[in-house]
């Protein structure tokens, strides 16, 4: 069962097709990375999922509620954190959160409990009396996340939540998102910082110029576009010797010098890979380091998209 | 303890927007600056008047001057600053990018609009409370009687509410900054004018207090208050429609209010006949409400024909109820049905007054014909172009264009024949006495002369053409409602 079910949505702005027949699903506990070049249609898709924009075609079901026929019910189940959001002037953090808690219909003791819990979860405890205008970017992002969590939505949509955050704030944000997924929420998160996404996502959706370019469980997607594994080898004999040896072996391709060793592609399953390592050891080469490069979301991104902007 | 619990539960029930905006206003610069400024000016004026009275002895004239000056300050605050801040507060939701947050918060558009209204009224009440002592002082100086004070407070408060709603509606019209700046300027002018009116009204009430004891004073005040509330309701519905989701119902509130307009005019007409024997109000009022009604009809007739998906899902499962509700559901064809309903109501209002024993039958007969004529013209001018436009795409830009064309059509239709008359040498056309000019037959009715058979024929043909042009979409509109009702029944039985 999926909590977020995007069904063939399209959206035009004048002559421009910002989103063109995009479908994907996100299940409970899943963190789905949403990637694509600038202007690919990520924000537009996310706004359609949050009822802020109407699709020209298609529909989105949020926990079973259509954003078209039951927008209010869908909205109650969704937490959307926009990429840029407004802050009310002359309002403190507490007043801001209190306002939205009231808007979501939280009453009395329950509202106080929820506010306390959300403020603690996002670590805003000491700042509640500060005016929003005076907050740093990181604090604002936390505040926005806190606001998104007030009504405990099963589906969360985060549009570039990490943009403009310092490394520590990014790590903290990542931990928060992981904790939310562990609570069983479905999370769709867009970001241009792909290493960041690779750390936490279980699946990805790639779009470019409004069209779906690929998607699914991260490892599957990586394998489907890249049948080869990228390996790195460093030996006492130096990179040139490594290269010579490797070129004689089966399944090896695209050998290239990198740092003080070589990078190469290897095509084959696990046992063939083990055999390769044995051959290397018996070739007279004295390896210092032999490592598999991680599933590289950046490579995936580059091979799936063409780099044409719109 | 109990009191605390009660206070807490009251606090819980408050409109969230009200809580937020009052907090913002009290912390923000705009309200605080203007509040102290107004109070300061009023105190200065008060002190100088008291000093003068002290040196020359208090009399009625000084009291009245004092009262008028206080009114000037109070009205500037409640009819100027407060509505303007309501405009700014609504405008800020677009500018500060918080409009999306409001939508996401799932507050109903109604709650948003009324929350903004309430917070503006709270600010207005703060002004009233501050000026209370000054007004009591004016009374003690023998400047003014209690009835006048009461009337001025009541009417200014009602006007304040209406102006607030106008400000909220105008600010909600456009998310783009440039048109909103223009709207803001227009609104500023409107506020200045209403301030001027309020001061002349206050002068009238202060210097001619006996006029308030005239038998026609009560109907006039009631008419003002009810009129303000209705117009305010229209502005509120407009703002609510602007803030609603596209697939939700953006029309029914306005439609219900438009019927209320006709009904209130009817009740008032009957009251005037029964109480004062003034028969002319029966149709005069129906003509007066036509001004807002024509604008609303123009809006309804050019709506897209299909029901929004959300609206369709909530049509009554009972076919009879669904059909009855059809004129109140969005859609151009259903708008035409509502328009016909309005006209029937307006004519029955005059008929009802005619049934009152002792009413002026000849006057009312003429009124019936006159009203029917006006309705016929409105129907022709609105329904023919809107009916034709409904064959084309329901895109927003096209619908706006249709509305503009219709608005432009009337002056062209009235001014073109005189030009033709000049060319063709038809002197009566030159004098605007041609059948395209709605005023021409109307003048005939009022002066008692009837118009020619050709002219009658043209009117009948045009009205019939408008009916023919609109019949297909009316039929489709009603069928759609029935289909939605059927779909809801089958959903209910499948669950
Ligand atoms: N309201 C709008 N009016 C007109 N065009 C729009 C509107 N919103 C988005 N677009 C266009 O639609 C396309 C998709 O925009 P979108 O913001 O969805 O991209 P994105 O993937 O979020 O890009 P980024 O990575 O830069 O945030 C862009 O070409 C953009 O210019
Ligand atoms: Mg974006």
List keywords for this structure.
heterodimer; A: 310 residues; alpha/beta; 4-stranded antiparallel beta sheet; 11 helices; 36% helix; 28% strand; B: 495 residues; mainly alpha; 2 domains; globular; binds adenosine-5'-triphosphate; binds magnesium ion
Description:
The complex is a heterodimer of chains A (310) and B (495). By secondary structure, chain A is α/β, with parallel strands linked by helices. Chain A has 11 helices and 14 strands. Chain A has a 6-stranded mixed sheet with strand order 6-7-8-3-9-10, with helices on both faces. Chain A has a 4-stranded antiparallel sheet with strand order 2-1-4-5. A 4-stranded antiparallel sheet of chain A has the order 12-13-11-14, covered by helices on one side. In chain A, strand 1 (4-13) and strand 2 form a beta hairpin. Chain A is elongated and about 75 Å long. The two termini of chain A are 34 Å apart. The model of chain A has no long low-confidence stretch (mean pLDDT 87). Chain B folds into 2 domains: 14-244, no CATH class; 271-489, no CATH class. Chain B has 19 helices and no strands. Helix content of chain B is 82%, strand content 0%. Chain B is mostly helical. The chains are: A alpha/beta (310), B mainly alpha (495). Chains A and B meet through helix 2 and helix 3 of A and helix 1, helix 2, helix 5 and helix 12 of B. Adenosine-5'-triphosphate (ATP) binds next to strand 2 and helix 1 of chain A.
SSE map:
The complex is a heterodimer of chains A (310) and B (495).
Chain A: E1 4-13, E2 16-26, E3 31-35, H1 42-49, E4 57-62, E5 65-66, H2 71-76, E6 78-81, H3 93-103, H4 108-121, H5 137-149, E7 155-159, H6 167-182, E8 186-190, H7 194-200, E9 203-208, E10 211-217, H8 218-225, E11 229-235, H9 239-247, E12 252-258, E13 261-266, H10 270-282, E14 287-292, H11 297-304
Parallel strand pairs in A: 3-8, 3-9, 6-7, 7-8
Antiparallel strand pairs in A: 1-2, 1-4, 4-5, 9-10, 11-13, 11-14, 12-13
Chain B: H1 2-13, H2 16-27, H3 29-56, H4 60-95, H5 99-104, H6 109-140, H7 146-173, H8 177-207, H9 217-243, H10 252-276, H11 280-301, H12 309-313, H13 319-325, H14 332-355, H15 361-389, H16 396-424, H17 427-430, H18 439-447, H19 453-494
Bound molecules: adenosine-5'-triphosphate and magnesium ion.
């Amino acid at each position: 069962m999926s909590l977020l079910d995007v069904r063939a949505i399209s959206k035009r702005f004048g002559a421009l097709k910002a989103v063109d027949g995009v479908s994907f699903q996100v299940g409970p506990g899943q963190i789905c990375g949403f990637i694509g070049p600038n202007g690919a249609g990520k924000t537009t898709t996310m706004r359609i999922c949050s009822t802020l924009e109407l699709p020209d075609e298609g529909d989105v079901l949020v926990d079973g509620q259509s954003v078209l026929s039951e927008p209010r019910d869908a909205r109650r189940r969704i937490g959307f954190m926009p990429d840029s959001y407004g802050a009310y002037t002359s309002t403190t953090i507490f007043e801001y959160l209190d306002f939205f808690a009231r808007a979501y219909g939280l009453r009395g003791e329950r509202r106080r409990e929820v506010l306390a819990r959300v403020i603690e979860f996002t670590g805003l405890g000491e700042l509640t009396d500060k005016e929003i205008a005076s907050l740093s970017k990181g604090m604002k992002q936390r505040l926005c996340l806190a606001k998104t969590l007030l009504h405990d939505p099963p589906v969360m949509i985060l549009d570039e939540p990490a943009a403009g955050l310092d490394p520590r704030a990014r790590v903290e944000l990542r931990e928060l998102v992981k904790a939310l997924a562990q609570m069983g929420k479905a999370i769709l998160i867009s970001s241009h910082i792909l290493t960041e996404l690779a750390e936490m996502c279980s699946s990805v959706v790639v779009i470019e110029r409004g069209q779906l370019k690929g998607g699914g469980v991260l490892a599957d997607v990586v394998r489907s576009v890249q049948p080869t594994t990228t390996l790195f080898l460093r030996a006492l004999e130096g990179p040139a010797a490594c290269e010579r040896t490797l070129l004689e072996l089966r399944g090896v391709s695209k050998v290239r010098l990198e740092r003080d060793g070589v990078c190469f592609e290897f095509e084959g399953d696990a046992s063939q890979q083990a055999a390769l390592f044995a051959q290397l050891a018996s070739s007279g080469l004295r390896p210092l380091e032999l490592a598999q490069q991680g599933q590289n979301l950046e490579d995936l991104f580059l091979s799936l998209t063409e780099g044409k902007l719109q | 303890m109990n009191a605390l619990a009660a206070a807490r539960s009251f606090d819980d029930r408050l409109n969230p927007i009200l809580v937020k905006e009052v907090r913002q206003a009290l912390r923000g610069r705009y309200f605080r600056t203007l509040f102290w400024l107004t109070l300061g000016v009023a105190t200065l004026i008060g002190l100088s008047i008291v000093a003068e009275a002290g040196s020359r002895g208090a009399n009625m004239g000084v009291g009245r001057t004092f009262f008028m000056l206080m009114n000037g300050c109070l009205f500037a605050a409640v009819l100027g600053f407060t509505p303007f801040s309501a405009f700014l507060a609504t405008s800020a939701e677009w500018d500060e990018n918080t409009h999306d947050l409001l939508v996401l918060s799932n507050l109903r558009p109604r709650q948003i609009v009324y929350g903004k209204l309430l917070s503006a009224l709270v600010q207005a009440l703060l002004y009233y409370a501050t000026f209370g002592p000054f007004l009591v002082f004016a009374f003690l100086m023998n400047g003014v009687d209690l009835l006048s004070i009461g009337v001025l407070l009541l009417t200014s408060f009602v006007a304040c509410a209406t102006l607030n709603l106008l400000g909220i509606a105008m600010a909600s019209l456009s998310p783009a900054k440039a048109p909103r700046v223009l709207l803001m300027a227009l609104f500023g002018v409107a506020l200045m004018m209403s301030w001027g009116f309020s001061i002349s009204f206050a002068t009238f009430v202060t210097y001619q207090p006996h006029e308030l004891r005239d038998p026609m004073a009560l109907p006039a005040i009631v008419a003002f208050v009810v009129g303000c509330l209705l117009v305010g309701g229209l502005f509120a519905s407009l703002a609510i429609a602007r803030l609603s989701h596209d697939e939700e119902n953006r029309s029914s509130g306005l439609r219900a209010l438009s019927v209320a307009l006709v009904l209130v005019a009817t009740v008032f007409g009957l009251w005037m006949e029964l109480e004062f024997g003034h028969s002319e109000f029966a149709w005069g009022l129906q003509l007066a409400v036509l001004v807002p009604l024509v604008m609303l009809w123009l809006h309804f007739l050019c709506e897209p024909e299909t029901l929004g998906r959300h609206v369709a899902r909530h049509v009554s499962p009972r076919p009879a109820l669904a059909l009855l509700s059809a004129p109140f559901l969005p859609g151009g064809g259903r708008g035409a049905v509502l328009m016909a309903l309005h006209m029937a109501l307006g004519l029955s209002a005059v008929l009802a007054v005619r049934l009152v024993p002792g009413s002026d039958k000849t006057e009312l007969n003429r009124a019936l014909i006159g009203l029917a004529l006006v309705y016929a013209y409105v129907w022709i001018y609105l329904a023919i172009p809107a009916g034709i436009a409904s064959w084309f795409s329901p895109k927003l830009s096209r619908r706006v264009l249709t509305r503009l064309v219709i608005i432009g059509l009337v002056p062209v239709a009235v001014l073109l024949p005189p030009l033709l008359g000049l060319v063709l040498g038809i002197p009566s056309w030159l004098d605007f006495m041609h059948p395209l000019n709605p005023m021409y037959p109307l003048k005939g009715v009022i002066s008692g002369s009837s118009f020619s058979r050709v002219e009658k024929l043209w009117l009948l043909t045009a009205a019939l053409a408008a009916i023919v042009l609109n019949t297909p979409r009316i039929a489709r509109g009603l069928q759609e409602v029935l289909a939605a009702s059927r779909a809801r029944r089958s959903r209910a039985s499948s669950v």
